[in-house]
């Protein structure tokens, strides 16, 4: 069996992506925020467009040789007040590839990508509480239970991204603010 490789998907991967995503929706419909009918009705051109990496979204694929065996998307929030959050979504590993590390490599690629975006502070995801394999994968990759409520049967997990540069810059900014307050000249009345 060839080694598993992971890379961002491109519009050229649209057919393989669609086939694997539809297989995932058919197998685990509750794990996806769409239906098989809705997803299968999308034109291939629209799926190809979804695979175009943007500053706010990227979809990764894990391959066994040339065969796409796992998928995962990472979506950043474009709204300024929540731009420090991203969501891991649409994670699916084909049955024949499970237990061989493809899912871990895929999730790690998404985490590495998120870590390279300086504005991001956390990655969130929702997972069915009875999906023990997925829970084990996410917990093993560093995710933890989030404080935010989840819908029935689902758990919200999050991963706080390491930000040593941000912490020192934040401390420096706080120090500058403190210095400005201490040196503020208030005119007498």
Low-pLDDT sequence parts: 165-187
How would you describe the shape? globular
Strand composition percent: 25-35%
Arrangement of strands in the largest sheet: 1-2-3-4-5-7-6
Distance between the termini: 82 Å
Q: What is the subunit arrangement here? A: single chain
Number of strands: 7
The ordered H/E elements are EHHHEEEHEHEEH
Instruction: Estimate percent helicity.
Output: 25-40%
Report the biggest beta sheet as strand number plus sense, adding barrel if it closes: 7 strands, mixed
Count helical runs.
Answer: 6
Radius of gyration: 20 Å
Mean of pLDDT: 85
Overall structural class, as computed from helix and strand content, comes to alpha+beta
Give structural notes.
The structure is a single chain. The protein is α+β, with helices and mostly antiparallel strands. Helix content is 36%, strand content 25%. It has a 7-stranded mixed β-sheet with strand order 1-2-3-4-5-7-6, with helices on both faces. Strand 3 (67-76) and strand 4 (85-93) form a beta hairpin. Helix 1 packs across helix 3 (44-50). Residues 165-187 have low confidence and may be disordered.
Q: Secondary-structure map with pairings?
A:
Blueprint: E1 4-8, H1 14-27, H2 36-40, H3 44-50, E2 57-64, E3 67-76, E4 85-93, H4 102-115, E5 122-128, H5 132-140, E6 144-145, E7 154-160, H6 164-182
Parallel strand pairs: 4-5
Antiparallel strand pairs: 1-2, 2-3, 3-4, 5-7, 6-7
Name the descriptors.
globular; disordered C terminus; alpha+beta; 189 residues; single chain; seven-stranded mixed β-sheet
């Amino acid at each position: 069996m060839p080694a598993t490789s992971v890379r961002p998907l491109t519009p050229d991967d649209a057919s393989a992506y669609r086939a694997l995503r539809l297989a995932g929706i058919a197998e685990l419909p509750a794990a996806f925020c769409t239906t098989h009918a809705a997803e299968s009705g999308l034109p291939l051109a629209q799926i190809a467009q979804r695979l175009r990496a943007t500053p706010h979204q990227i979809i990764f694929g894990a391959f066994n040789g040339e065969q796409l065996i796992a998928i995962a998307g990472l979506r950043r929030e474009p709204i300024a007040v929540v731009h420090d959050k991203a969501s891991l979504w649409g994670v699916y590993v084909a049955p024949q590839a499970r237990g061989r590390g493809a899912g871990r490599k895929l999730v790690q690629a998404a985490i590495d990508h998120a870590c390279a975006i300086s504005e991001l502070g956390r990655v969130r995801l929702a997972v069915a509480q009875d999906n023990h394999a997925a829970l084990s994968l996410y917990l093993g990759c560093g995710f933890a239970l989030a404080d935010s409520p989840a819908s029935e049967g689902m758990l919200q997990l999050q991963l706080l991204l390491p930000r040593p540069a941000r912490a020192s810059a934040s401390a420096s900014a706080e120090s500058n603010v403190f210095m400005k307050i201490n040196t503020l000249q208030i005119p007498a009345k």
